[in-house]
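Comment on both lines for my students:
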Amino acid sequence: MKRVGVYGGTFDPFHNAHLRLARALRDELALDEVRLIPAGRPYHRDSGPHADAEQRLAMVRLGIAGETGLTADAREVVSARNAYTVETLEALRAELGQDTELWCLIGSDSLEHLDRWHRWRELFALANLAVAIRPGFDAARLAPAVRAEWDARQVSDFSNRTPCGTIRALALTPVALSATEIRRRLAAGDDVADCVPEAVAAHIRRLGLYRPA
């Protein structure tokens, strides 16, 4: 059975915490491949990304170059419409087949609002959920419908791996690294070599991304 992870995000810019989480998803769940999917038009954000979709895709590709099992997936970047997670998973499931073990990574902050996602209950018929737990997460704060899924679907081992339908909390402790703060530092002309992969830093410098107009 092939095992594939899906890691979607704005990646504005792609930074070291993104790379660390992609590696953890691959390693903790023993996946063959993790597909990082930059959002083309993030429907859940009040304002659009600061770098355009092609630039963000390029940063992901540069940031994961040479990483075993990590690939960039451009499907949402080239799409002419907003892409909902459930629709991306439907497309992946159709491509990969029903027997592939598919994992979709979300943060615990997103889990708290999962019941507001488009066709959220259908996610479990398409993939397993890997949850990156943020500091301060409390399952008691989950909406009742989401809490019921959280309680019923969690797995702590892989004695019975399945293509979809389970939830696993990642053991990785998140690091305090924010894309917002990185953009602020870049706008101020500061060096961010400590925050982003070297190739991404060079790309940002070359194009002058995130600098004031």
Q: What stands out?
A: The radius of gyration is 17 Å. The chain has one domain: 3-175. The beta strands are 3-9, 33-38, 70-72, 101-107, 128-132, 167-169. The first strand starts at residue 3 and ends at 9.
